[in-house]
Each structure stands twice: as structure tokens, then as C-alpha cells.
Amino acid sequence: MPRADAFFENVYEAVRAIPPGRVATYGQLARLIGVPRGARAVGWALRALGGRAARKVPWHRVVAADGRIPLRAGPGPGVQRRRLRAEGVRFTSGRVDLRRHGLRA
DNA sequence: CGTATGACGAGCC
DNA sequence: AGGCTCGCCATAC
User: Fold this and answer.
1) CA separation for the pair A10, A98 (Å, rounded)
2) Would you say A18 and A61 are in contact if contact means Cβ atoms under 8 Å apart?
3) Would you tell me the crossing angle of helices A39-48 and A7-16 to the nearest 10 degrees?
4) What is the pLDDT of residues A62-88, one digit of tens each?
5) Of A14, A31, A51, A62, whose CB neighbour count within 10 A is largest?
6) Could you give the CA distance from residue A68 to residue A91 in angstroms, rounded to a whole number?
7) pTM of the full predicted structure?
8) Nucleotides of C strand lying within 7 Å of any protein CB atom
9) Partner residues linked to A25 by β-bridges
10) Could you say which nucleotides of strand B lie within 7 A of any protein CB atom?
């Protein structure tokens, strides 16, 4: 059972569960870990992700609810976009096509 | 212990 | 459609 401070771990675990070629939104992840309104907190957790730990977590598969990539993400939005593209994620007008790559049940 | 901050989201104007 | 404000959650100070 989850410890009280397992929030970050839960976030990372949820992100790790995102298959290549697919993306999830902050709010969606928050919901998966049982905190429906914790989208911002999820962002906090990912931000706390150091470069070292970032190697184990596919943070680039996390985008905003509208499919757009936050400008303050990781090393830079360009990196994230490039990585997603490398996984076959399609972009439409700078936005990820969530209907096609969104995390679905 | 109260205030401020932030890789967000939904609602309103 | 686009932009602004308020609300939520978990930290930092």
C-alpha cells in the first residue's frame, strides 16, 4: 500500500506506464494516481525530476491537456517534440494529436 | 503555521 | 476563438 509521501513515486510510475508512441496529460496522470485535481502537483513532480532520474522516466510523453508542449518542459520544448516525433507521434499545428496518441484505456 | 510558486485545467468573458 | 482568472495539489521559505 502506498506511503503518504509516495506521490512522486506514483507519478513516475504512471509516466513509466505510458507506452512509446503515446502521450498522457498532466490531469490524466493525476487521475490515474488518485488525485483528480492534482495536475499541477504532477507537473511539480516531473519538474523535481533530476537529469539522472529523468533517464528512467519518459517525461517527454507528458503533454498539456490541449496536446501542446509546455515551454518550460525539461531541457526545452524542442527536445520533447523531437523525442515524441522519433516515437512516431504526429503533430498538428504544434500540437500532439491526442485522439490518435492519447492514453486510452 | 501562513504565504508564495508552478512542466495544469476548466470556466468565463 | 483567444485570452484571463480562479481553483487544486504538493512543496519551498
Assistant:
1) 23
2) yes
3) 90
4) 999 999 999 889 898 899 999 999 999
5) A62
6) 9
7) 0.92
8) 7-12
9) A63
10) 6-10
